[in-house]
């Protein structure tokens, strides 16, 4: 479970993980189980990890698989249009990664509750092309690097619209046009506004 890259590489490319409170204590207690494997499969009893005889019983499975950043984009960077049963939350290439991941989790939570209906495959694929064009305009050839989008407002606006929240988060005309957006502007997305 030890990364094979240096701390400086991890820090400078925004790969520094943020762990929840008591993470290591929960690992020691056995309520969080870490397994490294080349392959796995799901079964009725839980999860079968390569090299294990008995399946692992699990309420939630988090696959920290790493990723290839040049592979196909997903709808809202969470769900692939042709595989809507699979959701992937991850860093969305902004300077405020935790904030972006939190908005993604809120979006996914609403999707799983049935509050958000996916658009048709064609429309989602069109949105993916729009997002790719947006990232090209902002970051050019470096668009697949972590932290490439300094101002992910378009993405946040789309997430807000899907969740039924007002994308204009500032109070007042001048604030909306001249004040920078930050994580505190998205407080209150837990209720429809």
Automatic annotation (TrEMBL):
Name by which UniProt lists this protein: Flavin-containing monooxygenase
One GO MF term: oxidoreductase activity
SUPFAM superfamilies xref list: FAD/NAD(P)-binding domain
Positions in coiled-coil regions: none
Keywords for this protein: FAD, Flavoprotein, Oxidoreductase
């Amino acid at each position: 479970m030890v990364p094979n890259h240096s701390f400086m590489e991890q820090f400078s490319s925004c790969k520094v993980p943020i762990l929840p409170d008591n993470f290591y204590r929960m690992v020691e207690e056995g309520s969080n189980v870490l397994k490294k494997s080349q392959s796995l499969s799901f079964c009725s009893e839980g999860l079968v990890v390569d090299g294990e005889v008995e399946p692992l019983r699990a309420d939630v499975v988090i696959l920290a698989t790493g990723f290839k950043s040049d592979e196909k984009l997903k709808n809202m960077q969470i769900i692939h249009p042709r595989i809507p049963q699979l959701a992937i939350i991850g860093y969305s290439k902004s300077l405020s990664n935790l904030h972006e991941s939190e908005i993604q989790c809120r979006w996914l939570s609403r999707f799983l509750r049935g509050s958000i209906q996916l658009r048709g495959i064609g429309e989602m694929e069109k949105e993916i092309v729009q997002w790719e064009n947006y990232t090209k305009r902002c970051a050019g050839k470096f668009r697949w690097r972590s932290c490439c989008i300094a101002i992910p407002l378009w993405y946040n606006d789309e997430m807000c619209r899907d969740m039924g929240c007002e994308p204009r988060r500032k109070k007042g005309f001048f604030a909306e046009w001249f004040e920078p957006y930050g994580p505190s502007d998205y407080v209150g997305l837990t209720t429809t506004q």
